[in-house]
């Protein structure tokens, strides 16, 4: 509409990458009137990711409860009931979810400020209104909270989880190695005990055989004595 400020662009692919800095524009069809492009921040992706994290954490809590639980009616214990590593893992994760982080240039310091809190069952839940208001008011603060280098929540939490799950140096790997070493030691001890028991069984069999031989000899002597007594009486 204004030749002094207008400019013409052409593309053989119907896609423009440099028309506006930071935007890629794809043309879908020919229009009969001017088109307006509105550029707005999409915060739905952030909210969806937060909900995915909450779902994943709550699944972890369900697995933990199943593996460490105790049934008072049947006296059945979970496989990991009383396991110190599980308790340490839960404590570290809960600590990360409740602590305030050293996030510079951001008003958001904790998950609680985003509306993420623990309920009475030890699971996370999201106050959507709190997060929506924060995203509308200061979306950059939310981004900084998660992504700030070295101190952002996503960075720090990833370090915590990696320290536990690293396949070479993680605490879970160390625990697995320890359990495998214990199992190997127990199997070795079982083999040693089986060898000892087998030797004792053989010794008892020999003793039993010798005792049977002695008994048979005594019975023979008794028979001979009975014969002598009868002969003397005659």
Which descriptors apply to this entry?
234 residues, two-stranded antiparallel ribbon, single chain, two-stranded antiparallel sheet, mainly alpha, 6 helices
Write the layout of secondary structure elements.
Blueprint: E1 15-16, E2 25-26, H1 44-68, E3 70-71, E4 76-77, H2 84-98, E5 116-118, E6 124-126, H3 128-137, H4 139-147, H5 153-165, H6 171-233
Walk me through the structure.
The structure is a single chain. Strand 1 and strand 2 form a beta hairpin. Helix 2 runs antiparallel to helix 5 and helix 3 packs across helix 4. With 234 residues, this protein is mainly alpha-helical. Helices cover 58% and strands 6% of the residues. The model has no long low-confidence stretch (mean pLDDT 89). Strands 1-2 form a two-stranded antiparallel ribbon. The chain has a two-stranded antiparallel ribbon with strand order 3-4. A two-stranded antiparallel ribbon has the order 5-6. The N and C termini lie far apart (154 Å). The protein has 6 helices and 6 strands.
């Amino acid at each position: 509409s204004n030749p002094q400020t207008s400019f013409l662009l052409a593309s053989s692919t119907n896609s423009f990458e440099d028309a506006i800095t930071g935007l890629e524009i794809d043309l879908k069809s020919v229009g009969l009137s001017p088109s307006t492009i509105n550029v707005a921040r999409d915060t739905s992706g952030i909210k969806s990711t937060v909900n995915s994290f909450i779902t994943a954490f709550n699944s972890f809590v369900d697995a933990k409860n199943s593996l460490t639980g105790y049934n008072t009616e049947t006296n059945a214990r979970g496989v990991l009931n009383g396991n110190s590593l599980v308790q340490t893992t839960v404590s570290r994760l809960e600590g990360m979810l409740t602590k305030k982080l050293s996030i510079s240039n951001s008003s958001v310091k904790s998950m609680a400020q985003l509306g993420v809190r623990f309920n009475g069952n030890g699971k996370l839940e999201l106050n959507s209104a709190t997060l929506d208001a924060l995203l509308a008011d200061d979306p950059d603060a939310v981004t900084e909270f998660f992504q700030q280098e070295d101190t952002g929540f996503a960075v720090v939490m990833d370090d915590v989880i990696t320290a536990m799950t690293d396949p070479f140096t993680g605490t879970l790997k160390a625990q697995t190695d320890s359990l495998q070493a214990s199992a190997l030691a127990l199997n070795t001890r079982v083999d040693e005990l089986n060898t000892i028991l087998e030797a004792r069984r053989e010794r008892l069999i020999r003793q039993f055989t010798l005792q049977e031989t002695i008994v048979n000899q005594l019975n023979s002597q008794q028979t001979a004595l009975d014969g002598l007594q009868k002969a003397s009486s005659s």
